[in-house]
Amino acid sequence: MMLSRLRELLCADWIWFPEGHGWADFKDQSDGKVFPQTSDLWATLPIALCFLLLRPLFERTIAGPLAALLGVRDKPRVCASANPTLESYFGRTSKHPSQSSLESLSKQTGLSVPQLQRWFRRRRNQDRPSKVKKFQEASWRFTFYFVAFFAGLAVLIDKPWFHDLKLMWEGFPKMTLLPSQYWYYMIELGFYISLLFSVASDVKRKDFKEQIVHHVATISLIGFSWLVNYIRAGTLIMLVHDAADYLMESAKMFNYAGWRKTCNLIFTVFAVVFIITRLIILPFWIIHTTWVYPLTLYPPFFGFYFFNGLLFVLQALHVFWAALIIRMVIKFLPANDIVEDERSDREESESEDESDVIKEKSTNGHVQNGHTPLNNNHRKTD
């Protein structure tokens, strides 16, 4: 009985709809009009599963050969030698041991501090995803975002609310669902659900937590807008997001291939499109039409605040990412260096091993912790 009352409260019309409207408005009419139904969202699960199954096939048969064609190659990595003590510390304590921890491990293992630094550096590199894997992941996302954006543009460009945003509220909430809107929603939502399930195996970047928040907010926003028939607004929001995403993924692909000028050119275009779509069009046109304009039509209600609250979460993330993008552009433009994703960890090279050895010698002399330091003829298997 308590669950039943809770359900009645959560599904109360006054929470999610303006006064005089409710869930009964979404019953399919005898004249052929179709409205979004809650049960429709179950279709996103098999679609998400199809994406999860299709992705490894795409990466193996299309992205892999494309990587080879563009000259994407993985640098040979020197593996860390087997050492149970160090492996245990690496997995359970820290991947970046402090100086005091290195000195303690030196006594336990009989290895010098430079040898330990080298071991941890090589061990960290082993866990970093390969350049080919990064290219394959970027190729998969590029393909989806590219197709989604231009397909979405094709189905929206002739709609009146695409040109006059205020028309997205005309007839709300009794707005007929179009077949193109149904498939646009199901495919987009299914894709983001698949991203949420694959996040554990994807390349982890420094903004991992922000990505999780973004995926959850996006799924919630798409799902909720479907339930209460904010579909016209939802399709415009999805289109605005897809407009820049495929450019970012293509810039990553050319970055991994080492095509400096092409990467920089595409990334510059991406930065401009990102700022225009997510810092200008989204907040000042779309959010203005979902946050300010509806108040001239209806008194505010909880669903109004919930929908716009999710939009504000996304907008905050856009500001965060815009700051990263601008910083990256400032770094690579003056020297014409190839742009590097600041969210990714940089692979540590073997040359850094030598610099650490030299630094240790100059700081502590020729003996550290009672052990003779390595000379320049150390073996690659150390």
Task: Assign an overall shape.
Answer: elongated
Total count of strands: 0
Largest sheet: none
Query: What is the H/E string?
Result: HHHHHHHHHHHHHH
Q: Helicity, in percent? A: 55-70%
Termini separation: 68 Å
Structural class: mainly alpha
Write the layout of secondary structure elements.
Layout: H1 2-10, H2 13-16, H3 44-69, H4 84-92, H5 99-109, H6 113-127, H7 131-156, H8 160-163, H9 179-198, H10 208-227, H11 231-257, H12 260-291, H13 302-335, H14 350-364
Helix pairs in contact: 3-7, 3-9, 6-14, 7-9, 7-11, 9-10, 9-11, 10-11, 10-13, 11-12, 12-13
Give an account of the 3D structure.
This protein is mainly α and 382 residues long. The chain contains 14 helices and no strands. Helix 3 (44-69) crosses helix 7, helix 9 (179-198) packs across helix 11 (231-257) and helix 10 runs antiparallel to helix 13. The radius of gyration is 27 Å and the shape is elongated.
